[in-house]
Each structure stands twice: as structure tokens, then as C-alpha cells.
Write a structure and sequence with these properties.
There is one protein chain. The protein is an alpha/beta fold. It has a single domain, classed as Rossmann fold, CATH 3.40.50. Helices cover 27% and strands 21% of the residues. Helix 2 crosses helix 5. The protein is globular.
Length: 289
């Protein structure tokens, strides 16, 4: 048993958490480069929270330029035990309408230009990703969203596209044929990197539009912004409800030690420079902390 410290990654439309007590913005250095922004730390009740705006305050950073490794690394350095991500998505499923919330449980990874791993030459690791989200945190987040008044769908496949442009109609229809339910530009490699950092991860997605598969014109950014604004209040309330629903003590999760069986590079073949960068992400299993 241990204390919770919840990392929140706020996506489009969610740039701060007004409910935090004793809040302050802190700057955390990372060997992986600059994160999207400083981190807003504080507490809700007795639970410590660290909030990172994924695109930076003012939405400065586009999806393809996010330094996701730095974002996850700084949350790990701040002592986060779990991470809840909140993201705006388009819907590929008629039942998931604009304004709805979706607890995502699967991903198809289609981005091309983003570093997908903390590991590489000199320290190779293969983490399991069959079930890419934490079932415990996902269930708690889903219940919290429903309690906050969201129309919630539990379980969905998220197609992670490169962006920043939206899909062509042919792409949108292709992704539907694959069984995808929602589409976005940010949740991967974020979920994968959280797994490598031994951070149980959940994604609460806010549906803003129907993408372009329905033959009703193109994706309308003005309408997306309108729906995001309406969703943001529910998202903030869901985060507060989630934090208040957490057990007083955090039971251990199998994801806390996922690297125990993931490292493959022999000790004598490991690159000292890469190991130094992994001090927060993998320091527990590498004996660096």
C-alpha cells in the first residue's frame, strides 16, 4: 500500500484545474528535452495531483511536435503513481455522439514522426501492450465521468493519426472498417511511454465531432471548439470526482513493475549515457534509485 499521486494530462480544452488547493506551477527539467509546459501541482483533499497541459497553456504545441517522452518523464520525476489523460476525439461510431465521453481501452497506432520509446540502442526493452490501459484507473475514471453528468461509453478503440490535418473521407471510412470507434492525434505514443515508465494509464476521451465519414461536409473547427467548451466543465468535474473516489491507500498494481520482465540488453552491453537518461523512467529496475 502507498499514497496516490495522480498525474493529469489535459488535452484540447482542458488547460488548468481550478479545483487544486495549494497549487503552484513548477518547472521540471528532463533529459529528454522540454515538456509541453510547467506542471501545476497541488492537492484535492488529501490526494496530491500534478496537472500537465498537453499542448501547453494557450495551445501552443501541435500534436506532431509534442515531446511526449519529456511529458511522461517529468510526471514520473514528480512522483506520480498513475496518469489520467483527457483528450478531444472525433467519432467513428454512430453511437458515440459529439458531447459524449468515452473510456478508451484499445489503440491502433498510425503516427509516423514521433519517438515511440524511451529505450533504444544500448538498452532495449519490450513492454507488454495487449491491454494498453490500466483497468482499475479506467473503471474509476469512467464512474467519475458518469457521476459528473457525462453520457459515457465504456470501451472503445482509438485510432492515433499523425495530424495536424484531419482525415480524408477515404481514411475515415477505412478506420471505421477496421473497427475503430474514435480518432485522435495524441494518445499514442503517450500510452506506450506511460507503460514503459511503469505508470498505470487511463484515457477519458471527449467526443467533439463525427470526423468526415458521414458525408455531411468537412470537420468544422468552430463546432469542435464549441463542443470542447461544453465538455471542459464536465471533464474538470470528472477529475475531481475521480480523485475523491480513490481509496485512502493505493494498492499495488501489476503495472508498477512491468519492466521487471521487459529489459533484454545484457548488463555489460548497456549504454551508460542512455541509462543516465532513464534514471526516472526505469531507475527502479536499473538500480539507479
Amino acid at each position: 500500500m502507498s499514497a496516490w499521486k495522480l498525474g493529469i494530462i489535459g488535452g484540447s480544452g482542458l488547460y488548468a484545474l481550478d479545483a487544486l488547493e495549494d497549487s503552484r506551477w513548477v518547472t521540471v527539467a528532463s533529459p529528454w528535452g522540454e515538456p509541453s509546459d510547467a506542471v501545476l501541482t497541488g492537492r484535492i483533499g488529501s490526494v496530491r495531483v500534478a496537472f500537465l497541459p498537453r499542448h501547453g497553456r494557450g495551445h501552443r504545441v501541435p500534436p506532431g511536435e509534442l515531446n511526449v517522452r519529456a511529458n511522461i518523464d517529468v510526471l514520473k520525476r514528480l512522483g506520480c503513481t498513475d496518469v489520467l489523460a483527457v483528450s478531444a476525439v472525433g467519432s467513428l461510431n454512430e453511437a458515440m455522439a459529439p458531447g459524449d465521453f468515452v473510456a478508451v481501452d484499445q489503440f491502433i497506432y498510425r503516427t509516423r514522426a514521433r519517438p515511440p520509446s524511451f529505450f533504444g540502442t544500448g538498452m532495449v526493452a519490450h513492454v507488454p501492450m495487449a491491454d494498453p490501459v490500466c483497468p482499475r484507473l479506467t473503471a474509476l475514471a469512467a464512474d467519475a465521468a458518469a457521476a459528473a453528468g457525462a453520457r459515457l461509453h465504456y470501451g472503445a478503440t482509438y485510432l492515433a493519426m499523425e495530424g495536424p490535418a484531419f482525415s480524408t473521407r477515404a481514411e475515415s471510412r477505412l478506420y471505421r472498417s477496421w473497427g475503430c470507434d474514435v480518432i485522435g492525434m495524441t494518445a499514442m505514443p503517450e500510452a506506450r511511454l506511460a507503460r514503459e515508465a511503469e505508470l498505470p494509464y487511463a484515457l477519458l476521451a471527449m467526443v467533439t465531432d463525427y470526423d468526415c465519414w458521414r458525408d455531411r461536409g468537412d470537420v468544422d473547427m468552430a463546432e469542435i471548439i464549441r463542443v470542447m467548451g461544453a465538455n471542459a466543465a464536465i471533464a474538470r468535474a470528472a477529475v475531481v470526482a475521480l480523485v475523491r473516489s480513490l481509496p485512502a491507500e493505493r494498492p499495488a498494481s501489476p503495472l508498477d513493475t512491468v519492466l521487471d520482465s521487459a529489459l533484454i540488453t545484457a548488463p555489460e552491453a548497456r549504454d551508460a549515457r542512455l541509462l543516465a537518461k532513464l534514471d526516472a523512467v526505469a531507475g527502479r529496475v536499473l538500480g539507479l534509485r
